[in-house]
Amino acid sequence: MADECTVDGIRPDLFADSGAYSAHTMGVEIDVTEYVAWLNRWNGLFTTVANLDVIGDHAASMRNLRALEECGINALPVFHTTTSDFEVFEDLCERYDYVGVGGMVGYQPKTIFPWLVRVHKIARKHDTRLHGFGQTSQRPLDDLPWYTVDSTSWASGYRYGNVRLFHPHQGKRVAMSLGDRKQWLKSASVVREYGFDPQDFYDRSRNTRGKIAGLAMASMRAEELYLRGRHGVQSGPVGDGLRMYAAEGSGSNIALAVEMGVRRYVPGYAATDTSAPDYVAPG
Fold first, then answer.
1. How far is CA 57 from CA 33, 85, 135, in A?
2. Given 54, 125, 152, 271, which residue has the most CB atoms within 10 angstroms?
3. pLDDT tens track for 89-102
4. Beta bridge partners of 15
5. Whole-model pTM above 0.85?
6. CATH fold of 7-151
Protein backbone atom coordinates (compact mmCIF):
# COMPACT_ATOMS: atom_id res chain seq x y z
CA MET A 1 0.00 0.00 0.00
CA ALA A 2 2.80 2.41 0.85
CA ASP A 3 4.39 1.77 -2.54
CA GLU A 4 1.08 2.28 -4.37
CA CYS A 5 0.52 5.56 -2.53
CA THR A 6 3.96 7.02 -3.26
CA VAL A 7 3.55 10.15 -5.39
CA ASP A 8 6.49 11.72 -7.25
CA GLY A 9 8.87 9.76 -5.02
CA ILE A 10 7.23 11.07 -1.82
CA ARG A 11 6.11 8.32 0.57
CA PRO A 12 2.69 8.60 2.20
CA ASP A 13 2.25 9.94 5.71
CA LEU A 14 0.83 6.90 7.55
CA PHE A 15 -0.73 7.04 11.02
CA ALA A 16 -0.96 3.63 12.73
CA ASP A 17 -4.12 3.38 14.83
CA SER A 18 -4.28 0.44 17.23
CA GLY A 19 -7.96 -0.21 16.52
CA ALA A 20 -8.82 0.19 20.20
CA TYR A 21 -12.15 1.89 19.51
CA SER A 22 -13.27 -0.77 17.03
CA ALA A 23 -12.17 -3.51 19.41
CA HIS A 24 -14.10 -1.85 22.25
CA THR A 25 -17.32 -1.60 20.23
CA MET A 26 -17.02 -5.18 18.96
CA GLY A 27 -16.01 -6.73 22.29
CA VAL A 28 -12.64 -7.87 20.91
CA GLU A 29 -9.41 -7.82 22.90
CA ILE A 30 -6.12 -6.76 21.33
CA ASP A 31 -3.00 -8.06 23.02
CA VAL A 32 -0.25 -5.47 23.43
CA THR A 33 2.47 -8.00 22.53
CA GLU A 34 0.69 -8.72 19.24
CA TYR A 35 0.44 -5.00 18.58
CA VAL A 36 4.18 -4.61 19.22
CA ALA A 37 4.92 -7.46 16.80
CA TRP A 38 2.72 -5.88 14.12
CA LEU A 39 4.42 -2.49 14.55
CA ASN A 40 7.88 -4.04 14.41
CA ARG A 41 6.92 -5.91 11.24
CA TRP A 42 6.13 -2.64 9.46
CA ASN A 43 8.73 -0.54 11.24
CA GLY A 44 9.74 2.51 9.24
CA LEU A 45 6.47 2.98 7.34
CA PHE A 46 4.64 4.96 10.02
CA THR A 47 4.92 8.65 10.81
CA THR A 48 2.88 8.21 14.00
CA VAL A 49 1.96 5.18 16.12
CA ALA A 50 -1.00 5.39 18.53
CA ASN A 51 -0.98 3.76 21.94
CA LEU A 52 -3.13 0.67 22.50
CA ASP A 53 -5.50 2.59 24.75
CA VAL A 54 -8.17 0.96 26.90
CA ILE A 55 -11.34 3.03 26.75
CA GLY A 56 -12.55 3.93 30.22
CA ASP A 57 -9.40 2.63 31.97
CA HIS A 58 -6.57 5.16 32.03
CA ALA A 59 -4.34 2.97 34.24
CA ALA A 60 -4.52 0.11 31.72
CA SER A 61 -3.84 2.55 28.88
CA MET A 62 -0.72 3.78 30.65
CA ARG A 63 0.48 0.21 31.24
CA ASN A 64 0.22 -0.42 27.50
CA LEU A 65 1.99 2.85 26.74
CA ARG A 66 4.88 1.90 29.04
CA ALA A 67 5.05 -1.55 27.41
CA LEU A 68 5.35 0.04 23.97
CA GLU A 69 7.99 2.51 25.17
CA GLU A 70 9.99 -0.31 26.79
CA CYS A 71 10.06 -1.97 23.35
CA GLY A 72 11.48 1.22 21.83
CA ILE A 73 8.22 2.36 20.25
CA ASN A 74 7.50 6.09 20.55
CA ALA A 75 3.70 5.85 20.83
CA LEU A 76 1.14 8.64 20.96
CA PRO A 77 -0.62 8.72 24.37
CA VAL A 78 -4.41 8.96 24.20
CA PHE A 79 -6.79 10.85 26.50
CA HIS A 80 -10.49 9.94 26.51
CA THR A 81 -12.34 13.21 26.75
CA THR A 82 -15.63 11.90 28.12
CA THR A 83 -14.37 9.22 30.51
CA SER A 84 -11.08 10.47 32.02
CA ASP A 85 -10.26 13.14 34.58
CA PHE A 86 -8.73 16.33 33.23
CA GLU A 87 -5.89 15.98 35.75
CA VAL A 88 -4.87 12.97 33.67
CA PHE A 89 -4.76 15.14 30.56
CA GLU A 90 -2.77 17.83 32.35
CA ASP A 91 -0.20 15.21 33.34
CA LEU A 92 0.03 13.88 29.77
CA CYS A 93 0.60 17.40 28.42
CA GLU A 94 3.37 17.99 30.98
CA ARG A 95 5.15 14.81 29.85
CA TYR A 96 4.46 14.63 26.09
CA ASP A 97 4.58 17.17 23.25
CA TYR A 98 1.94 15.30 21.19
CA VAL A 99 -1.23 13.78 22.69
CA GLY A 100 -4.26 12.11 21.14
CA VAL A 101 -7.79 13.05 22.18
CA GLY A 102 -10.38 10.28 21.82
CA GLY A 103 -13.76 9.34 23.23
CA MET A 104 -15.64 11.75 20.94
CA VAL A 105 -17.28 9.39 18.44
CA GLY A 106 -21.05 9.28 18.86
CA TYR A 107 -21.33 12.73 20.43
CA GLN A 108 -22.81 15.74 18.69
CA PRO A 109 -20.27 18.57 18.15
CA LYS A 110 -22.27 21.01 20.30
CA THR A 111 -22.26 18.49 23.17
CA ILE A 112 -18.54 17.76 23.03
CA PHE A 113 -17.38 21.29 22.21
CA PRO A 114 -16.93 22.55 25.83
CA TRP A 115 -14.64 19.56 26.54
CA LEU A 116 -12.65 20.28 23.39
CA VAL A 117 -12.17 23.93 24.32
CA ARG A 118 -10.88 22.83 27.70
CA VAL A 119 -8.33 20.35 26.32
CA HIS A 120 -7.08 22.94 23.84
CA LYS A 121 -6.57 25.49 26.61
CA ILE A 122 -4.59 22.99 28.67
CA ALA A 123 -2.54 21.88 25.66
CA ARG A 124 -1.72 25.47 24.71
CA LYS A 125 -0.44 26.12 28.23
CA HIS A 126 2.06 23.26 27.83
CA ASP A 127 2.76 23.86 24.10
CA THR A 128 1.43 20.35 23.37
CA ARG A 129 0.12 19.39 19.94
CA LEU A 130 -3.21 17.55 19.72
CA HIS A 131 -4.55 14.78 17.52
CA GLY A 132 -8.34 14.40 17.29
CA PHE A 133 -9.46 10.78 16.84
CA GLY A 134 -12.56 10.54 14.65
CA GLN A 135 -12.77 14.33 14.59
CA THR A 136 -13.64 16.01 11.31
CA SER A 137 -16.86 17.79 12.27
CA GLN A 138 -16.88 21.25 10.79
CA ARG A 139 -17.22 23.46 13.88
CA PRO A 140 -14.42 21.79 15.93
CA LEU A 141 -12.14 22.05 12.88
CA ASP A 142 -13.06 25.64 12.06
CA ASP A 143 -12.87 26.94 15.63
CA LEU A 144 -10.02 24.95 17.23
CA PRO A 145 -6.36 24.66 16.14
CA TRP A 146 -5.82 20.90 15.90
CA TYR A 147 -2.38 19.67 14.87
CA THR A 148 -3.68 16.42 13.34
CA VAL A 149 -7.09 14.77 13.01
CA ASP A 150 -8.50 11.62 11.45
CA SER A 151 -11.88 10.30 10.41
CA THR A 152 -13.57 7.69 8.23
CA SER A 153 -16.17 10.22 7.07
CA TRP A 154 -14.24 10.88 3.83
CA ALA A 155 -15.26 7.31 2.80
CA SER A 156 -19.00 7.93 3.17
CA GLY A 157 -19.36 8.33 -0.61
CA TYR A 158 -18.47 4.76 -1.57
CA ARG A 159 -19.91 3.35 1.64
CA TYR A 160 -23.25 5.13 1.84
CA GLY A 161 -23.61 7.15 -1.38
CA ASN A 162 -23.07 10.46 0.39
CA VAL A 163 -19.93 12.32 -0.80
CA ARG A 164 -18.35 14.96 1.44
CA LEU A 165 -17.47 17.84 -0.92
CA PHE A 166 -15.48 20.80 0.38
CA HIS A 167 -16.09 24.18 -1.28
CA PRO A 168 -12.67 25.86 -0.91
CA HIS A 169 -13.82 29.35 -1.91
CA GLN A 170 -16.61 29.35 0.70
CA GLY A 171 -14.79 27.36 3.37
CA LYS A 172 -17.67 24.96 3.88
CA ARG A 173 -18.46 21.30 3.36
CA VAL A 174 -21.53 20.04 1.49
CA ALA A 175 -23.03 16.54 1.66
CA MET A 176 -23.61 15.37 -1.93
CA SER A 177 -25.93 12.46 -2.76
CA LEU A 178 -24.85 10.21 -5.61
CA GLY A 179 -27.47 10.28 -8.36
CA ASP A 180 -28.86 13.73 -7.47
CA ARG A 181 -28.40 15.55 -10.79
CA LYS A 182 -29.61 18.95 -9.59
CA GLN A 183 -27.28 18.93 -6.59
CA TRP A 184 -24.19 17.93 -8.58
CA LEU A 185 -24.83 20.50 -11.30
CA LYS A 186 -25.16 23.19 -8.63
CA SER A 187 -21.63 22.33 -7.43
CA ALA A 188 -20.30 21.52 -10.91
CA SER A 189 -17.61 24.23 -10.92
CA VAL A 190 -16.12 22.92 -7.66
CA VAL A 191 -16.17 19.32 -8.90
CA ARG A 192 -14.41 20.36 -12.12
CA GLU A 193 -11.86 22.33 -10.14
CA TYR A 194 -10.93 19.04 -8.50
CA GLY A 195 -10.46 17.51 -11.95
CA PHE A 196 -13.68 15.47 -12.11
CA ASP A 197 -16.81 15.42 -14.27
CA PRO A 198 -20.08 16.03 -12.33
CA GLN A 199 -21.88 13.54 -14.59
CA ASP A 200 -19.75 10.75 -13.11
CA PHE A 201 -21.58 11.34 -9.83
CA TYR A 202 -25.16 12.10 -10.85
CA ASP A 203 -25.27 9.35 -13.50
CA ARG A 204 -25.15 6.14 -11.46
CA SER A 205 -24.05 4.11 -14.47
CA ARG A 206 -20.81 6.13 -14.51
CA ASN A 207 -20.08 5.89 -10.78
CA THR A 208 -16.92 4.02 -9.84
CA ARG A 209 -15.37 3.50 -6.43
CA GLY A 210 -12.15 5.07 -7.67
CA LYS A 211 -13.81 8.30 -8.81
CA ILE A 212 -15.82 8.61 -5.60
CA ALA A 213 -12.78 7.92 -3.39
CA GLY A 214 -10.59 10.21 -5.51
CA LEU A 215 -12.95 13.18 -5.28
CA ALA A 216 -13.28 12.68 -1.52
CA MET A 217 -9.49 12.56 -1.09
CA ALA A 218 -8.96 15.69 -3.21
CA SER A 219 -11.69 17.45 -1.26
CA MET A 220 -10.10 16.45 2.06
CA ARG A 221 -6.74 17.76 0.88
CA ALA A 222 -8.32 21.11 -0.05
CA GLU A 223 -9.96 21.35 3.37
CA GLU A 224 -6.63 20.61 5.04
CA LEU A 225 -5.01 23.50 3.16
CA TYR A 226 -7.94 25.80 3.97
CA LEU A 227 -7.62 25.02 7.68
CA ARG A 228 -3.88 25.63 7.60
CA GLY A 229 -4.66 29.08 6.23
CA ARG A 230 -7.38 29.68 8.81
CA HIS A 231 -5.36 28.69 11.89
CA GLY A 232 -1.82 29.06 10.61
CA VAL A 233 0.69 26.28 10.00
CA GLN A 234 1.74 24.48 13.20
CA SER A 235 5.18 22.96 13.55
CA GLY A 236 5.40 19.80 15.60
CA PRO A 237 6.90 16.34 16.09
CA VAL A 238 5.63 14.91 12.77
CA GLY A 239 6.10 17.98 10.59
CA ASP A 240 3.77 20.81 9.66
CA GLY A 241 0.06 20.73 10.57
CA LEU A 242 -2.84 20.73 10.29
CA ARG A 243 -2.81 17.21 8.86
CA MET A 244 -6.05 15.40 8.07
CA TYR A 245 -5.69 11.62 8.01
CA ALA A 246 -8.11 9.58 5.89
CA ALA A 247 -8.92 6.68 8.21
CA GLU A 248 -9.61 3.41 6.41
CA GLY A 249 -9.05 -0.27 7.08
CA SER A 250 -8.60 -1.19 3.40
CA GLY A 251 -5.32 -0.34 1.71
CA SER A 252 -6.93 -0.83 -1.71
CA ASN A 253 -9.43 1.98 -1.06
CA ILE A 254 -6.64 4.35 0.01
CA ALA A 255 -4.61 3.44 -3.07
CA LEU A 256 -7.63 4.11 -5.31
CA ALA A 257 -8.17 7.48 -3.65
CA VAL A 258 -4.54 8.48 -4.14
CA GLU A 259 -4.49 7.31 -7.76
CA MET A 260 -7.71 9.10 -8.68
CA GLY A 261 -7.53 12.12 -6.37
CA VAL A 262 -3.99 13.10 -5.51
CA ARG A 263 -2.42 12.69 -8.96
CA ARG A 264 -5.18 14.79 -10.54
CA TYR A 265 -5.62 17.66 -8.13
CA VAL A 266 -3.22 20.47 -7.24
CA PRO A 267 -4.79 23.49 -5.46
CA GLY A 268 -4.40 26.69 -7.43
CA TYR A 269 -3.18 25.05 -10.64
CA ALA A 270 -4.62 23.01 -13.47
CA ALA A 271 -5.81 19.70 -12.08
CA THR A 272 -3.29 17.63 -14.04
CA ASP A 273 -0.21 19.79 -13.42
CA THR A 274 1.63 17.87 -10.70
CA SER A 275 4.82 19.84 -11.42
CA ALA A 276 3.36 22.98 -9.84
CA PRO A 277 5.82 24.55 -7.37
CA ASP A 278 3.51 24.27 -4.34
CA TYR A 279 2.58 20.64 -4.99
CA VAL A 280 2.59 18.67 -1.73
CA ALA A 281 1.88 14.97 -1.28
CA PRO A 282 -1.23 14.17 0.77
CA GLY A 283 -1.36 13.77 4.53
1. 19, 11, 21
2. 54
3. 999 999 999 999 98
4. 48
5. yes
6. TIM Barrel (3.20.20)
